[in-house]
Design a protein that fits this description.
By secondary structure, the chain is an alpha/beta fold. It is built from 11 helices and 13 strands. Helix 6 links the parallel strand 9 and strand 10. It is globular, with a radius of gyration of 18 Å. 49% of the residues are buried. Bound molecules: adenosine-5'-triphosphate and alpha-D-ribofuranose. The site of adenosine-5'-triphosphate has 21 residues, from helix 9 and helix 10.
């Protein structure tokens, strides 16, 4: 595959339990509707882009277990090229324990499993794939050194790099300097912009600070409030369409990124791609599961 979206990232199995309210430390609550679902930020973003018609290839690792075999089959069934999805012997597939409350909000604890074993040799084996991409997409559920290596390959080849800096962590300056499109949520933007604790967050100011670190385009996602977009000649808040009913926000950011990537790959400009991503993400929160709510092309239409 060349000219499409190449995603490097995590594959998880999501163990999801719904409960009326999220438990406090030391508290036990009753849950319901336990489900085992496909997840992982990398896999989710790949699925979101593929469902909207983009050619997608994936680079990552699963364990040599039933979860890993299922995850591989799920990605393949979505039409994603899994040539560079590695099965790591003797290691479990990544797991995300997810609690979702009655308002659709979640909290998540991760066990990286095989995701932690992705290495630079595997990335080197996929170098030609990365160098031929229209857009390279990555997140931070894979080892930072490996993400950094892959970003350097894409950047050196002139391939635009989209980084979703999730889960939140501080990053070396050279990583941000090679990123073209940074898509953090509010928490991640606050960490990267060294936003002072206790000070009200201002997405416009944070986006400006982040642009000064390298990325020409910064899109801060703001949940139900939409997103703030800052780029050359563009700085504005873009509201999200109102969701009819919020069932589960898990994967909303992943849907946004996958839809944005698909739209850009198809030639949409920044504003149209962000609008498309908002439509996709606001729809995704009305349905359960990280990928369960992701729309398909026949539902969402063209960017
Ligand atoms: P997650 O980690 O759960 O995938 P996130 O924190 O990365 O999500 P958010 O900023 O919460 O990302 O949401 C991403 C996008 O999803 C928003 O920009 C918006 O388009 C859409 N979205 C999220 N929550 C809602 C909501 N309650 N109503 C409508 N749209 C929403
Ligand atoms: O962004 C949502 C994802 O984060 C979930 O699917 C879970 O696997 C965690 O990685």
């Amino acid at each position: 595959m060349s000219g499409g979206v190449v995603v490097l990232g995590s594959v998880n199995v999501d163990l999801v339990l719904r409960c009326a309210a999220l438990p406090q430390p030391g508290q036990t609550v009753h849950g319901q509707d336990f489900q085992t679902l496909p997840g992982g930020k990398g896999a989710n973003q790949a699925v979101a882009a593929a469902r909207l018609g983009a050619p997608v290839a994936f680079i990552g690792c699963v364990g040599d277990d039933d979860f890993g075999r299922t995850a591989r089959a799920v990605l393949a069934a979505e039409g994603i090229d899994t040539t560079h999805l590695h099965t790591m012997a003797g290691t479990p597939t990544g797991v995300a324990m997810i609690l979702v409350d009655g308002a659709g909000q979640n909290c998540i604890a991760l066990a990286a499993g095989a995701n932690a074993l992705l290495d630079t040799a595997q990335v080197d084996a996929a170098a030609a794939l990365i160098e031929g991409a229209a857009l390279f997409v990555c997140q931070l559920e894979s080892p930072l050194a490996v993400v950094r290596h892959a970003i350097a390959i894409a950047h050196a080849a002139g391939v635009p790099v989209l980084l979703n800096p999730a889960p939140a962590q501080a990053l070396p300056a050279d990583v941000l300097a090679q990123v073209d499109v940074l898509v953090p949520n509010e928490t991640e933007a606050a960490v990267l912009a060294a936003w002072p604790d206790g000070t009200p967050f201002d997405a416009a100011v944070a986006a400006g600070r982040l642009r000064a670190l390298g990325p020409r385009t910064v899109i801060v996602t703001l949940g139900a409030d939409g997103a703030y977009v800052a780029a050359d000649g563009l700085a504005r808040h873009v509201p999200a369409p109102t969701a009819a009913r919020v069932v589960d926000t898990t994967g909303a950011g992943d849907t946004f990124i996958g839809a944005y990537a698909a739209a850009r790959c198809e030639g949409a400009d920044l504003a149209r791609a962000v609008a498309y991503a908002q439509r996709a993400a606001s729809l995704s929160v009305t349905r359960a599961g990280a990928t369960g709510g992701m729309p398909r092309r026949d539902e969402l239409g063209s960017p």
